[in-house]
Amino acid sequence: MVTGGDSPPRNILPGHLPMQRPILLALLLPFLVLAAMINLALAQEAEPPTAKLQRELTRIEAGIAEHSANDERLVALRVETDKLAKALIDFGVSFRPELGRINARLEELGPPPKEGEPPEPDIVASERRELLSRKSAINAELAAAERLSIRTNEASAAISDLRRELFANTLFRRTTANGVFNAENWNAFRQDIHKAWRTIVSRLQFVGTFRIQSLLAATGLSIVLVLAVWWGFQRTLGRMLLMRQRDGELSYFGRLSLAFWSTVIPTLAFCAGLGIVYWLFFSFAIFSGQSLELFQAFLVSIAAFFFIQQLVRSIFAPGHPGRRLAAVTDRGARWIVILTLAMAAVHIIDFLFGWIADIYSSSLAVTVGQSMVAALTIGVLLIMIALVKPYRNAETGQLLPLPGIVRIPMLLLAAFVILAAVSGYVGLAKFAAAQIVITGAILATMLIGLQTGRALGADGALDATRLGARLKARFELSDTAMDQFGLLLSLGTYLLVILAGLPLIALQWGFNRVDVSSFLYRIMTNITIGSFSISLFAILFGIILFVLGYILTRQFQGWLDRNVMARSRLDTGVRNSIRTIAGYIGIGLAALVGVSAAGFNLSNLAIVAGALSLGIGFGLQNIVNNFVSGLILLAERPFKVGDWIVAGQTAGTVKRISVRATEIETFQKQTVILPNSELINQPVGNWTHRNHLGRVDVAVSVAYGTNPRMVHDLLLEIAAADPSVLKVPAPFVVFLGFGESALNFELRFHVKDVLEGSVIATRIRFSIVDAFEARDIQIPFPQRDLNIKTEDLEKLLSAWAEKSESKQPGPRARAKPGGR
User: Fold this and answer.
1) What is the pTM of this model?
2) Helix/strand/coil percentages in the chain, nearest 5
3) CB of 393 within 8 A of CB of 401?
4) Which pLDDT band, with edges at 50, 70 and 90, does 29 fall under?
């Protein structure tokens, strides 16, 4: 009992606090939370930076031990391992700047004083201790990161070993066929098929009853979008393919391109349509769980069969010999197509049943039985294909089998599949059968694509195509430009075929999608050559930026010339100089941006430029002069390969322009190498700079007494009659003057190609000779008149006679023949 003067009791029951304490706790609660967060942050800051990476690696190692028999999980762990390895590398690189600063500062402080030397100041000693402590801590972290990197590499190698072991165990596991083919397994197989059917039907009934709007929306959108994709295909490339199919007999290149594109393009369009259907049905939740997996397996099977049948029909073209790649008979083409499609159907059905078995966890006996039947069937069908006689002897009409280089490997592969299946190595037999069908189809498509690229890169191949003719007419391309564009398309076709085909083959040979994507990512983003690392993506991006900069520079040059300088009434030479300088600056900036975006360090270029400058100072002036002159020649193009130029005493056709010298071939077929500096520093005449139009001069003389006006009109008539002489500018005759023995004229006319001027001039000269002979016009030769005085001649003759008589011998000096 409590009295009025007594104080309240000290003991209070749990849960009953005075009113002041809850208010106090409410006021202190934010400060307590803040203190807890500060403590947590300080604890995390005190934790070594490598602790988190170590925990991540420990988790990965535990996952490897736990999921050593699950290939999909091992692949995911491999991706995490690669990310961790990259994080460790970045962690080590992040300390390099700080280590560099510490070492530089320690060098500035100098070595510590030795024993017996005066001690250094306290502030210097304190700073040295702090720097050495920080350096020691960084080295400890780097050592820990190095140890973690070694463990990461070991974990990655362990994952690779486990995956190889799983793959080998799957292939070379031997199972007995005893008891596989019995009524119990047959009933189990039928039950699995019935379960799959009931799953799809039940799901559709459920959706049709409770979600009919979603079903109608997904179906309607699928139809609309698939029709849109097909219409786009028909509008763009389908019409071209149909036109090529109606052309009848095609060239080898035409058949190759038709086979390749009629396989790839429709398959891509068909797969795009199936992908749209799957995405819509997944988004509207029409299928889910097992029904969604079954729906996905069904779509994949349809896409694979569509691709194979497009490929086979494109190669053998039954009923269309003009489009057939292989020179086989119609009967042989039909049998090969039927048997190949049957083999593909067997493999795809086995793939679909295998997917169903995985979904419903079928017994091993059922899986082994269906795989064995599929492998044996594919082996038998392959033997039947090898025994087909698709060729016919043109002389005797006898049917001939496939060449031995094709038939014998096919028979060996079929025997291997059958023996492996009968011997109990069903996994190996199934794998080999799958590679025969799928990998064979991919390799056949790649071969057609590579052959198409090779044919496209041949000289003049693009000009012969309809696309090439349209491009040439649309952009007014020269034959050289068309040939270079054909080579570019050829390289693009090679690249497309390799980048598309090799990953697909890798997926068939046991590699996972993540493996392929990560490998491609490493190849495209990080290629290490020694200490140098490049990125194909960065290089491609740099090239794109350079091309864009080049195009913008050309557009700016045109705008500057047309809209700015043309209005300012500048001289043509000044306008050309300004335009050229703007082009050099723009292309230089584009090159710098492209090189920088490609990942190349511009400081290295500065070092190279400094080294070149030093070399120039030691005697490379002439080389650099020729080099820069070559760049100017290549940029300004005062002449190009094929032009007829005259440089000093050298005249001929330009054969090659390099950065140091230019090769000129004279008309005597002598090759003259001229340094580029000489072509820059001296006048150079170019007969074919802008065009091949040129003037030809033919000199002719007639005898005195000939009517000069008649000669003038006759020469003009001869020039007008020649088809190679241009009417505009019109030919004309120049009366040069009065010679010593003739009247001198010169016929001047223009021709379309000055390189043929000598041939045309020769033809004109023959016409002049014929016309002059017909009109009795004399072409004189030089004449001289010799006047001799007779008096001087008589004196000379008498003196010569006297001299001759004085030299004759006397009688005593004469001797008879035979005497002494």
Assistant:
1) 0.55
2) 70, 10, 25
3) no
4) low
